[in-house]
Amino acid sequence: MNVLQLYVYGASLLATSLGAAVAQEAGGQYVQVAEIEVDPAQLETYRAAVQEQIDTAIQKEPGVLVLYAVSEKDEPYRVKVFEIYRDRKAYEAHLGSDHFRKYKATVEKMVKSLKLVQATPIALGAKTK
């Protein structure tokens, strides 16, 4: 399974476990992949920060449907975050949330590069268990 397949699988699994309708068409959903390069010396601290941010966003924001972070096996400092929001407005609300602003301030000096890639779902599917 390649990295992209892992993102889609994991995102689908998470969305299903959250009760999101993964099989429906995008219908206004906002989907993107964040490609992040982290300073290797700060990788563990970054992982803790991104975990806290994702846990809080999923718990507190109904418009956040999927946040799934993975790193490349051979280059673990290369992180991808697969994101699905109810709509653009939910994405913008997420950017303004206290927990996201805390995450950005925490990781500011850890992140060497960030590329946001807007995406369109083709097919997402997962088993519930």
Number of domains: 1
CATH topology assignment: Alpha-Beta Plaits
Oligomeric status of the shown chains? single chain
Distance between the termini: 19 Å
Mean pLDDT: 85
**Overall strand count:** 4
Q: CATH class, anyone?
A: Alpha Beta
Radius of gyration: 14 Å
Could you say which structural class the secondary elements and strand pairing correspond to?
alpha+beta
Describe this structure in words.
The protein has 129 residues and is an alpha+beta fold. The chain has a single domain, classed as Alpha-Beta Plaits. It contains four helices and four strands. A four-stranded antiparallel sheet has the order 2-3-1-4, sandwiched between helices. A hairpin with a 6-residue loop joins strand 2 and strand 3. Helix 2 runs antiparallel to helix 4. The longest helix is centred in the middle third of the chain and has 18 residues. It is globular and about 40 Å long. The two termini are 19 Å apart. The N terminus is likely disordered.
